[in-house]
Design goal:
11 helices, Aminopeptidase, binds zinc ion, four-stranded antiparallel beta sheet, elongated, Alpha-Beta Plaits
Length: about 425
């Protein structure tokens, strides 16, 4: 990948790497790997489905407290929060990983360890991220260095699914003083996410009178047919490959077997659409809702009676945002990823993504999300697994990002 990093970011990075305190912190993190793995296993056993993060949030807050952070608490949004004070002369930074997993309670019975691999639902996404942040924090403490800016360490609630990056959004809303955020989502050092993919998720209900499939035939329109017409229209949409724009009808429901000989009075479709461009996202939204209206009009006109109507529920409302690929925080992440990856050639920028960093980028706050990689560890799947080899690489990367973003007292400025 041909990617040039500015002199300022490079200078800061190599200055940090040459400091004995930083070297000490990096080797400390390497030695800390077994402890970090133990923490990861224990946290995995505290199940935390989205919206039910309370217990894990308390446990994470305990850990932040034990590491000497100030003002440790679980906030009103179920985020576990602690602050590492700087001297107040630098930017305020947030370092976070998400508490929740996609699995319902009862999914995790144990963490199975076999041939250097851990198996358990949520072992990577994002329990590994939580453990990584703690290990990076221990490395920072061990270095004896103080930062210029204050750093919030946060375990965030409601990242996944219907949580829609909610804990992060709530934290940003209530902390306007933030100047940069570093998210850790996953277990690897290669992938860097710096763009915000917008996501819109809706349910649309189609309504008609409903009646007997034989007796009422011809007397009314069919909301299920209207929904099917809408899906057929959406299915044929062409969308740009760049900026990447996608859509998917993911749920279609109407009727039941008891009423199998009925024209149903209601049909529901659920769909989501995404784009790295807010403009494309809004264009697609208009096309989809126009198609829904057309489908209802056609079904109504087909029978000449019984107007099909519709309404909607809006589930996820995440806006797209752009950040310059040469924003200092992105350049810093590139250098840190190269330094900490086993194969520096594999470092890459993700094309968008649905991660907590989106919320910052959409607000114009410099942000990167780390932890992505090319290894498929079956995240969001009951067979999820984590190969433990070189687990120290990602916490090292996170530590270097923290030092670059927050600045080191008496030594380096923030790159922000
Ligand atoms: Zn995640």
């Amino acid at each position: 990948m041909d990617y040039q990093v500015s002199e300022k970011v490079k200078d800061t990075f190599y200055k940090l790497l040459s400091m004995p305190e930083v070297k000490k912190a990096l080797s400390y993190i390497q030695a800390d790997a077994p402890k970090s793995i133990e923490e990861q296993k224990k946290l995995t056993l505290i199940e935390a489905p989205t919206f039910f993060e309370d217990e894990r949030a308390e446990a994470y807050a305990e850990k932040l407290k034990a590491l000497g952070l100030s003002d440790v608490h679980v906030d009103e949004f179920k985020n576990a929060v602690g602050v590492l004070k700087g001297n107040g002369s630098g930017p305020v930074i947030m370092v976070e990983a998400h508490l929740d997993t996609v699995f319902p309670k009862g999914s995790v019975k144990e963490v199975v360890e076999k041939d250097g691999v851990l198996y358990a639902p949520g072992i990577v996404d994002d329990t590994r991220g939580l453990a990584v942040v703690l290990s990076a924090l221990r490395g920072l403490k061990e270095s004896g260095l103080s930062t210029l800016g204050d750093i919030y360490f946060v375990g965030t609630a409601r990242e996944e699914g219907m949580g829609a990056l909610g804990g992060m959004e709530d934290f940003l809303k209530t902390h306007p003083e933030l100047n940069g955020t570093i998210s850790v989502d996953g277990a690897w050092t290669e992938g860097i996410t710096f763009e915000a993919t917008g996501i819109q998720t809706y349910a649309v209900n189609f309504y008609g009178i409903g009646g007997h499939a034989y007796g009422a035939f011809g007397q009314m329109a069919n909301p299920l047919h209207a929904a099917a017409r809408a899906v057929a229209k959406i299915a044929d949409f062409q969308v740009p490959a760049s900026p990447r724009t996608t859509f998917c009808v993911s749920n279609f429901h109407a009727g039941n077997d008891a009423g199998i000989h009925a024209i149903v009075p209601k049909a529901t479709i659920k769909f989501n659409f995404r784009s790295n461009s807010e403009e494309e996202l809004m264009k697609l939204k208009k096309r989809i809702f126009d198609a829904i209206q057309e489908a209802c009009d056609e079904e109504t006109a087909r029978w000449g009676k019984d107007t099909i109507t519709w309404d909607y529920e809006h589930y996820c409302d995440i806006h797209a945002g752009n950040q310059d690929i040469h924003a200092p925080i992105v350049e810093a992440a590139y250098l840190a990823a190269k330094k900490c990856s086993e194969d520096p050639e594999k470092v890459y920028f993700s094309q968008g993504g649905s991660v907590n960093g989106n919320r910052s980028v959409a607000r114009g706050i410099p942000a990167v999300t780390l932890g992505g990689g090319l290894t498929d560890t079956k995240c969001h799947n009951l067979e999820e697994f984590y190969p433990m080899k070189d687990s120290w690489r990602l916490p090292q990367e996170v530590l270097l990002m923290i030092l670059m973003a927050a600045g080191v007292e008496g030594r380096t400025d923030s790159i922000l």
